[in-house]
Amino acid sequence: MSKGRRARRAAGQRQGRLLGAAVLAVALIIGAVAFRLAGGPTPAALDSDASGTIPLLGSSVLSPANLTRTTAQFGHMPIVRVYFPGLPGHYAWTSIAGVNKSAVIVSFKARPAAIVSGADDARLRQFFATAPRGRPVYYSYFHEPEDNIARGQFTAAAYRAAWKHIAALAASAGNPYLHATLILMSYDLVPGSHRHWKDYLPRGGVISVLGWDAYPVGSATNVHPRPTAPARFMGPAIAASRSVGLPYGFAEFGLSTAHGRPGWLKGVGKYLLHSGALFACLFDGNRQYPTLRLTDAGSIAVWRHYVRVSAAARG
User: What does the alpha-carbon distance between residue 141 and residue 114 come to, in Å, rounded to a whole number?
Assistant: First the structure.
């Protein structure tokens, strides 16, 4: 090959490499734009997992005053956990369950016999008919029924039948944002509990979401609480939910000591962002469990960060 031909060939190869690099750069830019338009993670959501899906993060709320306090601590929360000790009243959505203008996990209680008899139908129909639209409402009947069933207050079969009746009433409201959410204790999944969590699960697609109250070692009883790794006390609930193909979230979690809590809570926050959970609500204590309340500045700052990540991702 002559010297001139070698030079022309080398120049052609350089031009080909430059053209290939330019095509690759354009392809990368187009791909990045398409990924962002498809809902991929933004630079502001660096804590998210590869899919950009971030759970709704928030806190338990016990009263309007408590909502004011937790909002001051954590900012406006994308989701709140609300409890009704009995059936919800006529003004449930204009009181604590609806005033945050966010997604909500809301539970209520009534004996299964009364539910199945239809005695509470009018009240429940009104509750579901007036529920907000445009944001998820994870409603739960008699959360954590395990101890009540173990004490003989009602049977698991009666509980499942009541759930079926309630879900039918909710469906009649025609609100696609209502989600039947069975909330159980993650303790059910411990071999020593001698429980079978599926005993509480109604069959036939009645339940659309599984919620779990999951606590690290000692925190549910406030006896020698330890900052257990989230994979240990949340992981089994995730595995159980996936085994039946149901979406899942954590209706309660918390550590009943301030010692080491900021670092533990940071680990939990990171774990949740990659967990595939729909939601997770910190249980911020009550009169019975005051040590679960976040009172230390470090823990408050950590959970405020993750609430903000969740809020930013949800717009």
Answer: 13
Task: Locate the DSSP E strands across the chain.
Answer: 56-61, 79-83, 103-108, 137-141, 178-185, 209-213, 248-253, 279-282
Q: Which two tokens stand for residue 281?
A: 């609500």
C-alpha 312: how far from its chain's center?
16
| Pairwise CA distance, residues 139 & 92, whole Å | 12
Q: CA–CA separation, 261 vs 310, rounded Å?
A: 20
Find tokens 């031909």 and name the residue: 5
Q: State the CB neighbour count (10 A cutoff) for residue 229.
A: 14
- Residues in the chain, how many? 315
Task: Note the pTM of the prediction, 2 decimals.
Answer: 0.84
Pairwise CA distance, residues 67 & 80, whole Å: 9
- DSSP annotation of 211: E
Q: Report which secondary-structure segment, H or E, holds 135.
A: none
Within 10 angstroms of residue 18's Cβ, the number of other Cβ atoms is 10
CA angle 201, 205, 208 (to 5 degrees): 80
Residue 150: strand, helix, or coil: helix
The amino acid at residue 293 is R
**3-state DSSP call for residue 165?**
helix
How many other CB atoms are found less than 10 A from the CB of residue 171?
13
**Could you give the 3-state DSSP secondary structure of residue 210?**
strand
Nearest in space to 283 (alpha carbons), one of 255, 248, 311: 255
pLDDT digits 0-9 by tens, 57-90: 999 999 999 999 999 999 999 999 999 999 999 9
